[in-house]
């Protein structure tokens, strides 16, 4: 498969370590395929523990001079990286659509979203402040300073192959850390293109390393066990996140985990129903439902349930599912056949238990990785579509009677990443927003993410925050210095 790129040198197939493009020691490769067509896009170098160790050591060496640079110097380099990403937006979007499948307009949007994190942290890195603490003694002063945590390991997912990298790499680099990145095997090409642009921007060799691999356990094992690595940041499933945290315990690494979700959107009978439908459509079906904060459960108050389902189904029926390069497509394929199998199994299980597919619910004939936008009614909390993250274009619509019941249903999950509430009642907004157990709450809005907000969850949805002024905290250590012997 040939990509129509303006700058063909952005399509890299080797890993990027210490400023050089390298193959694995054993010359192994793996295939990257277009999920819409199955066509081969590229064969990419598959590295192992040995090369990962080399990347970590290169990062450690490079960080020594990088952390000594002024925040302004680091900011200027990051800003050049940001500008280069904007200048190559279309090529980056084409690469992303080819390997991930999302429609081209969504890929373009993600490139801008990802670039925004680099610009934000290029500025925010200048604002790492400390404190002077009044002490009980008059002959000393207490000083608090912030220092970079050390070499950072990052493991990123395939659903947002650009933005999930920049919102980890940007704060790490901004405060003086170096980073070793393992992108998802499904979508390494976006990561490698970012590395090429980082190199052009003047990011010094060794500071931003990309270890591509089809041996996730081997590379992950080195990242979590190597004592040089001081922090691991991961975006992905909760089960994998738990394993990584356990592996990091032996060397007491700092961890930040952005894990699975089971987001409810709660729509009360006093809500603007058209606004709620618009928000639910965007949240549920963006990236074909393959987002951690997408609506997983639609909870609608009984009085407007039928009207909501009717309008919602009409809107969904206007979708056009197809190849992401087709400008007419509103939604693309799922990432692979296993994803389709998992989604369809949940739908079949729900239907067998009494649910009704108002629209969709069957496999899509246009390809093995396609699944139609689906709406399920007559669903109950004991079904898998209530308890498990669907990660596909399936919207189960549940009914509730009271505010208390809605809060209880929303909280009836081990996850707590994002939730959404639609109501015109100001008192209810506060009660429900405070009563539901989620790290992020959107009120009359589902497009809640940006570089300026603290993205993250509670319960088994993770720990730490990405973006905003709080996004630097996970990459900094707090050091106390006691200045004694002062004469008055």
Automatic annotation (TrEMBL):
Its EC number is 1.2.1.-. PROSITE patterns: ALDEHYDE_DEHYDR_CYS, ALDEHYDE_DEHYDR_GLU. The active site is at residue 258. Residues 21-481 form the Aldehyde dehydrogenase domain. NCBIfam families: SSADH. Belongs to the aldehyde dehydrogenase family. This is NAD-dependent succinate-semialdehyde dehydrogenase.
């Amino acid at each position: 498969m040939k990509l129509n790129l303006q700058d063909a040198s952005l399509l890299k197939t080797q890993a990027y370590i210490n400023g050089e493009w390298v193959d694995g020691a054993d010359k192994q490769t793996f295939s990257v395929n277009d999920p819409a067509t199955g066509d081969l896009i590229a064969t990419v170098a598959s590295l192992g523990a040995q090369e990962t160790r080399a990347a970590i050591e290169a990062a450690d060496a490079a960080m020594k001079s990088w952390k000594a640079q002024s925040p302004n110097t680091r900011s200027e380099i990051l800003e050049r990286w940001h500008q280069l990403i904007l200048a190559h937006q279309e090529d980056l979007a084409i690469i992303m659509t080819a390997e991930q499948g999302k429609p081209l307009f969504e890929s373009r949007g993600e490139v801008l979203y990802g670039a925004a994190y680099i610009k934000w942290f290029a500025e925010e890195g200048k604002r790492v402040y400390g404190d002077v603490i009044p002490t009980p003694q008059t002959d000393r002063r207490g000083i608090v300073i912030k220092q970079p945590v050390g070499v950072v390991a990052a493991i990123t997912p395939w659903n947002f192959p650009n933005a999930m990298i920049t919102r980890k790499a940007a704060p790490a680099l901004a405060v003086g850390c170096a980073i070793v990145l393992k992108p998802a095997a499904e979508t390494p090409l976006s990561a490698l293109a970012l590395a090429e642009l980082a190199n052009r921007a003047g990011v010094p060799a060794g500071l931003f390393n990309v270890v591509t691999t089809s041996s996730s356990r081997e590379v992950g094992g080195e990242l979590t066990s190597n004592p040089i690595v001081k922090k691991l940041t991961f975006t992905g499933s909760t089960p994998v996140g738990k394993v990584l945290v356990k592996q990091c315990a032996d060397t007491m690494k700092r961890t930040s985990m952005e894990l699975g979700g089971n987001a409810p959107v709660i729509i009360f009978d006093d809500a603007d129903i058209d606004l709620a439908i618009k928000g639910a459509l965007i949240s549920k079906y963006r990236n074909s439902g393959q987002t951690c904060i997408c609506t997983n459960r639609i909870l609608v108050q009984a009085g407007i349930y039928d009207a909501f389902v009717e309008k919602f189904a009409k809107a969904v029926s206007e979708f056009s599912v197809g190849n992401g390069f087709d400008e007419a497509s509103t939604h693309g394929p799922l990432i692979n056949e296993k994803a389709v199998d998992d989604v369809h199994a949940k739908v079949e299980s729900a239907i067998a238990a009494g649910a009704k597919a108002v629209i969709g619910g069957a496999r899509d004939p246009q390809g093995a990785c396609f699944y139609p936008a689906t709406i399920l009614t007559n669903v109950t909390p004991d079904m898998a579509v209530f308890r498990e993250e669907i990660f596909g274009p399936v919207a189960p619509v549940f009914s509730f009677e009271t505010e208390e019941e809605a809060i209880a249903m929303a909280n009836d999950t081990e996850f707590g990443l994002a939730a959404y509430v639609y109501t015109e009642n100001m008192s209810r907004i506060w009660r429900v927003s405070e009563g539901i157990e989620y790290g992020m709450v959107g009120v009359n809005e589902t497009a809640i993410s940006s570089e300026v907000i603290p993205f993250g969850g509670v319960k088994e949805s993770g720990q730490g925050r990405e973006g905003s002024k709080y996004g630097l905290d996970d990459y900094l250590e707090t050091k106390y210095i006691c200045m004694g012997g002062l004469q008055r």
